[in-house]
Design a protein that fits this description.
Layout: E1 9-10, E2 16-19, E3 24-29, E4 32-37, E5 43-47, E6 50-54, H1 60-81, E7 84-91, E8 96-100, E9 103-107, E10 114-117, E11 123-127, E12 135-140, H2 143-155, E13 166-169
Antiparallel strand pairs: 1-6, 2-3, 3-4, 5-6, 7-12, 7-13, 8-9, 9-10, 11-12
Length: 184
């Protein structure tokens, strides 16, 4: 049995979970609403204060989906109650970040600024404090969307291994290499 899949998802007060005929699970909470289509083989049992998932057989496919859907629904419940935050740091001379609404303007050492439109489901904020690296803050209820947008921003200028310049997640530990002069 899947260790993750057999654990029930705790549903806090103020959160409602419904499953319709097409096996689409909807989670409504104080911060918003999220929905996820669930495979027809996985059975969802909504009890008082918890949701459990069961699988019909021990096939590899069923075992994989059992834990997956439990984790997805757990993240949805956490998202509509607390929300998710992601912080990115711009390391490099002259790197800047600014936002107007959901338009993010990044200066990452290229000959031009990069302007990205952040999805309307997310809130974006930037900070450019003197003496510290510029930071970009992403906030929303959908964990997958925040992770995808953060990965897209990081891919614009990945941190390089010699000086660590680039866009990195806050708290990310980079593997550094010694330069040419290290061998002498």
């Amino acid at each position: 049995m899947s260790r993750i899949g057999k654990q029930p998802v705790a549903v806090p007060a103020g959160v409602t979970i419904t499953v319709d005929a097409e096996n689409v699970l909807t989670v409504k909470g104080p911060k918003g609403q999220l929905s996820q289509a669930i495979d027809r083989d996985i059975t969802v049992v909504i009890g008082e204060g918890s949701v459990t998932f069961t699988r019909p057989t021990d096939q590899i496919r069923h075992r994989a989906m059992h834990g997956l859907y439990r984790s997805l629904v757990n993240n949805m419940v956490k998202g509509v109650t607390e929300g998710f935050k992601k912080e990115l740091e711009l390391v490099g001379v002259g790197f800047k970040a600014a936002n107007t609404g959901n338009l993010l303007d990044l200066s990452l050492g290229y000959s031009h600024n990069i302007i990205i439109e952040i999805p309307s489901e997310l809130k974006v904020a930037t900070s450019n404090e003197k003496g510290q690296n510029p930071k970009v803050f992403l906030e929303g209820i959908d964990k997958q969307l925040i992770g995808q947008v953060a990965a897209k921003l990081r891919s614009l200028r990945k941190p390089e291994p010699y000086k660590g310049k680039g866009v990195k997640y806050a708290g990310e530990i980079l593997r550094r290499k010694a330069g040419k002069s290290a061998g002498k």
